[in-house]
Design brief:
Layout lengths: L7 H13 L3 E3 L6 H18 L9 H15 L2 H9 L8 H23 L6 E10 L2 E10 L2 E12 L2 E9 L2 E2 H34 L2
Parallel strand pairs: 1-2
Antiparallel strand pairs: 2-3, 3-4, 4-5, 5-6
Length: about 210
């Protein structure tokens, strides 16, 4: 049986992936639209996290909902879900695809909320971007104390918005790591088995709050 305990490398990548979007960004003066889009989201999230009027357990739900609204505006969870399933996506019904998007995005968001609420003085330094047609790579470094972690955001332009669909951390794609794990589970337990495991993971996450 394939274990659904996320492997250490995936945990580390996903943690930084969701962690970095919620902390202080330092952006070059020549930053163009993709970097500006991420910077705008970062600044708004920081405002929520540091807002004294939203501190305390009594404001927990309002704080979380406000943060998640901002995250929803910057991430393409539909595309992330499709890429995380790879070839398995096309074999699903429309209803199964929709159900997976709901669970997978919910899992990512809950992981994000756990990390953002431990806000400290970490920084993300954006260095450059490469744009080709409707795709972009934004290069950055996650800085904590004296250590740095390389982070590359992958974005796709949808209408007038640049949306994140993957993050490469120290050379490892978060989405590709999920795809490998999900593929193993589907092979062993079919798609229904993966959905049950996602549901259980979310239940455990809810119980820990």
């Amino acid at each position: 049986m394939v274990s659904f305990h996320i492997k250490r490398k995936i945990v580390a990548s996903c943690t930084v992936f969701l962690f970095v979007l919620g902390f202080v960004a330092v952006v070059s003066a020549e930053a163009s639209l993709p970097i500006d889009s991420i910077k705008m989201t970062v600044e708004r999230i920081i405002q929520v996290v540091t807002d004294q009027a939203l501190k305390g357990e009594e404001n927990s739900e309002k704080r979380k909902n406000t943060i998640l609204q901002l995250v929803d505006q910057r991430f393409n969870f539909q595309l992330m879900s499709r890429l995380a399933l790879g070839d398995n996506w096309d074999s699903l019904t429309v209803e199964e695809q929709a159900g997976f998007v709901v669970l997978f995005s919910d899992l990512l968001k809950k992981t994000y909320i756990r990390r953002i609420e431990s806000y400290s003085d970490e920084k993300v330094v954006f260095s450059k971007e490469n744009v080709k047609d409707n795709l972009a790579l934004v290069y950055s470094q996650f800085v904590k104390d004296t250590s740095e972690i390389s982070i590359i955001y992958k974005l796709k332009k949808e209408g007038d918005e640049w949306l994140v669909f993957d993050v490469v951390i120290e050379g490892a794609s978060v989405i590709k790591q999920y795809r490998r794990q999900f593929s193993e589970i589907i092979t062993a337990e079919k798609f229904d088995g993966l959905m049950l495991r996602l549901q259980e993971k979310i239940k455990l996450s809810n119980a820990s709050h």
